[in-house]
Amino acid sequence: MAVTSESTTLWTGTLKEGSGTTRLDSSKVAEFPVNWKARSVGEAGTTNPEELLGAAHSACFSMALANILTSAGHAPESIQTTAAVTFEAGRGVLGSHLLVSARVPGITEAEFEAFADDAKANCPISKALAGIPITIEAELA
């Protein structure tokens, strides 16, 4: 069964002077302010598309890794994933770097790295990001 998730952004003004809000419509759990400054140089309290993309990538990767590990008989105790998405004005999104730490009883570091590489290649968001480099650092906690 396919599930469609929706978000809405309302933007007013020009790119550099304008601002907007992005609302998570499907879950109704949050609404975030967005603007160019947050995207181009950073601004506390305001998000940007790359931060939201990083949230999607880290969540998707963690779920994919949990599934891969469990299917292989190694149920994880915890997985923490940070996705650092790099954006450069004029060039766009340059890449996503996954930093992963997990507690998984009964496997070696080498086995874990292989499972993490599999999740990196096959999580749906990684596949959607096929046009950019995706790198990973994965270790057992």
UniProtKB/TrEMBL annotation:
Q: Biological process GO annotation list?
A: response to oxidative stress
Where does the source fall among the domains of life? Bacteria
Matching SUPFAM superfamilies? OsmC-like (SSF82784)
Molecular function via GO: peroxidase activity
A Pfam family that this protein carries is: OsmC
Q: Which NCBIfam families match?
A: osmo_induc_OsmC
Q: Which PANTHER family match?
A: OSMOTICALLY INDUCIBLE FAMILY PROTEIN (PTHR42830:SF1)
Name this protein carries in UniProt: OsmC family peroxiredoxin
